[in-house]
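pipeline stage [seq->struct] | target=HTH-type transcriptional regulator DmlR | organism=Achromobacter insuavis | residues=288
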Amino acid sequence: MDWDNARIFLAIYRNGTLRGAAALLQIDQATAGRRLAALETSLDARLFLRTPSGYVPTAAGEQAFAAAERMEQAADQLQRQMQGLDHRLSGVVRVATSETVASYFIMEAVRRLHRQHPDIRIALSTSIQLSNLTRREADLAIRNVKPDNPDLIHRHLARRDVGLYASKSYIAARGEPRQGTAFAGHTLVTYQQSVLPGWSDTFCGEPTGNGHIAMELNSGLMIIEAVAAGLGIGELPVHMAPQYPDLVRIWPHRSEPYDLWLVMHGDLNRTARVRAVADAIVEVFEEN
């Protein structure tokens, strides 16, 4: 099985469309189609059913996926191991984290890093969803979930809290909610269920069943902006709230803790540029 063709097959399998696979691999759609056709010819098997809703794997496609995924894992492992021997303080380091962590911690870490190592380039991806470090979607990640994959190494960075906030204008118009009422008579701002299922069930231990969800978002920064704009009550990181002087904390004695972890693949631990970025991130967290 040709690895270039197998890569495109995996992208089509995971995205369900030629267009999505081509965009992911940054190639044109026609090339993706030709590569898939070449792979099917070489294997003498139909790997997908072409349907109006996308590409659906056949039984042969399911078997090919397992084999292609093993090829991908071996290729990624080889690349990580070669990177682990790289002592250059230059090149790209891919960092994945949430928007709120990026804005409050990572920007400062990169500023300091570039004073010492200007040839290291950071490719920053911000999302609530976890990047797959084993598949090399990122070199470093800051997560609020401790990894259980034995191939990943991790360091505890900090424990932070979220609290309940609303804008001054919201409090003036609606007043504060009463504890034990499940936010009756109030509007709430929360994450989309598809992003963080169950997030809106409780805010700082208070059920939200009687509240009206005014807005669902997929971005922590946008939740802060929505609350600051007076659209409702939300759970926000306590350490970020002082940046928004119009915010008022509700029930200051109530909060929910969360942990932040720096995670990388063990094969990259000795890569000089990755270590330099990790050290800069750790330094910023230790000071905050």
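stage status: PASS
auto-comment: Helices lie at 3-15, 18-25, 29-43, 59-84, 99-116, 168-174, 220-228, 272-287. The chain has a mean pLDDT of 88.
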